[in-house]
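Go through this pair.

…
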Amino acid sequence: MSDFSRNPELNRLVAIDGLLSDDERDVQALVRRFCDDHVRPNLPTWYDEASVPARELAKGLGELGLLGMHLDGYGCAGSSATAYGMACHELEAADSGIRSLVSVQGSLAMFAIWRWGSEEQKTEWLPRMAAGDAVGCFGLTEPDFGSDPAGMRTHAKRDGDDWVLNGTKMWITNGTIADVAVVWAQTDDKIRGFVVPTDTAGFEAREITKKMSLRASVTAELSLTDVRLPADAVFPEVRGLKGPLSCLSEARFGIVFGAMGAARDSLETALDYAASRQVFGKPLSGYQLTQGKLADMTLEVSKGMLLALHLGRLKDGAGVSPEQISLGKLNNCREAIAIARECRTILGANGISTEYSPIRHAGNLESVMTYEGTSEVHQLVLGNALTGQSAFR
C-alpha cells in the first residue's frame, strides 16, 4: 500500500487514506508503481513528440488486470467501482492520455460489449481486451455532432442478412491502434450499436495530428465506406441513445477520480518547487501569496476527492445516477484545470517546461473538460434535474 499523496503534509491534511479499503489502496499503489516505472520517465518525450507506444502500454496494463477491471467475468477483474476510480486517479496523476487509453478500452468499448453485446460478442472480444491483446475504440462523436449525438449522420442499412455502414467518426481515442470499434449508427429502427473489426473492408482510421492537448494519446478520425457486417455484428437489444449514454456515464465516473489525480500531481509539484526555490533570500513557500494559493488548492483537492469517493460508494452500493456523475465531472474538471493553471504560476518561467507537470496537465484538462460531455452539457443536465425543464431543445 502507498499513501494517497507523495507529499506527507498534503497527505495528512487531505486524509483520504483512512477512507479507502486495503484493496483500494493496493490498486492505487500498483498503478503508481507502473506509472513510475513505465510512464513518467517517458512523458516529456512522448508529449514533445506527440507519440506514445499505446499498444505496448495496453499490454502492460492488461497484465496488471486494469483493463475493464470493474466488469465481471470474461477475464475481467471484477473490482469495485471505487477501486477502478482510484486506478483512474493514479493514471491521470501521470497523464490524462494514459487514463484515456484505459477509460476508452474499459469503460467505453469493453463496457458497451459487456452491457449490450451478445454472448458471442462478449466471448470473442472481452477476454482478449482485458488482457490487452486486443485494443478497442468507441465511435460516437462525429465532425458535426458532438454534444448532440442524436443528430449523427453515420447510418447502417440492411442488405439481405448483412448490415452496410457508412459515415465518419471524429476524435476517437485509440482509433488507429484498435482491433475492434464499437460504432453507433442511425438505422430504420433507431440508433444501434455495432461491433466492427477494424480489418473489415471499407474501415479506415487516420490519426489526428497537431494537437495541443492529450499529446501522449492516440486520437483518430474513422471513416466507414460501405462497411459490410454480418447480421450478428449489431448489439441485439439496445436501441436509441440509451446504449451510448450508458457507456459515457461509465467513462465520466472514471474522470471524476482522474481529474483530481492531475490536480493532486500539479499541487505536489508546486509544493516541492516552492519549498526549494529561493526568492529574495527565502523559500518561495514562505510568502503569503504563495501560501494562500497552496491552501486554496488543497481545499479543492480535498473536496474533489471527497465527492469522488462519495460517488464511488454510491455506485458500489445502491447505485449512482447519471446526473450525480455529471455533478462530479463538472466540479472536478473545473477545479482540476484551475489548480493546474495556478500551480503553473508558482513555477514561474520554469512552469512552461515539460520538465514539470502542471502545464501538461492544464493542456490535457482542456480536452478532459470537453470529452464525455462538455461542462455546459453537464450544467444543463443538472439544470434539468433541478427544474424538470430541459434546455437542450
The longest helix spans residues 242-276. Residues 173 and 219 are 4 Å apart (CA to CA).
